[in-house]
């Protein structure tokens, strides 16, 4: 079955996917809390906010599926009218290293061209192997994040918005 990436509909049509996404966001939260126990409560708050936004039908959620099976997700949001911030990127463990994460990020880069933004940014724990994943997609180190042991990585995009 081919992998498809699409933006989640804000209507109720995607409600069945939303409940799977909540489970996946829980898994993402636990893996991040394990990596950064010093930020466990902040990660909890951030995850709660993501789930609340998801359930309220906000736009900007990209999902990767194979048929009805959910493989991964990422959330994109416009910040300061100049950059897209990615959050919640997660690929189900049995679906990793098959290009799912890359497809999600490439779809985000494509969608970002319709926003008034010239770059995409993501905050990542410096020890997370995801740093190599972002590098493979053209992201580079931008600065240290305000949280210890985290960095911000960015990639430039061509905005049409
Ligand atoms: C990071 C993550 C999203 C990558 O998703 P994925 O679908 O496995 O990524 P891809 O298959 O598209 O990988 C593309 C390339 O990125 C690099 N890469 C991906 N995972 C990597 C890892 N664990 N270590 C080193 N390089 C990695 C490789 O160059 C890979 O190409 P290759 O498989 O041909 O060597 C996934 O591992 C994940 O969900 N991790 C847990 C959550 C997380 O850390 N999210 C990021 C929060 S900021």
Describe the protein's architecture and organization.
With about 160 residues, the chain is α+β, with helices and mostly antiparallel strands. The chain has one domain: 3-Layer(aba) Sandwich (Aminopeptidase), CATH 3.40.630. Helix content is about 35%, strand content about 30%. The protein is built from four helices and seven strands; from the N terminus they run E-H-H-E-E-E-H-E-H-E-E. Helix 1 runs antiparallel to helix 2. The chain starts with a strand and ends in a 5-residue tail after the last strand. The model has no long low-confidence stretch (mean pLDDT about 95). The protein binds coenzyme A.
Any descriptors?
161 residues; alpha+beta; Aminopeptidase; seven-stranded mixed sheet; globular; binds coenzyme A
* Number of distinct beta strands: 7
* Total tally of structural domains: 1
3D shape: globular
Ligands (ions, cofactors included): coenzyme A
Q: What composes the largest sheet?
A: 7 strands, mixed
Overall average pLDDT: 93
Q: Note the beta-strand portion.
A: 25-35%
Poorly predicted segments? none
Order of helices and strands: EHHEEEHEHEE
Report the end-to-end length measured between terminal Cα atoms: 34 Å
- Secondary structure class reads alpha+beta
Query: What topology, given as strand order, has the largest sheet?
Result: 1-2-3-4-5-7-6
In CATH, what is the homologous superfamily? Gcn5-related N-acetyltransferase (GNAT)
CATH structural class: Alpha Beta
Oligomer type: single chain
Residues in helix, %: 25-40%
CATH topology: Aminopeptidase
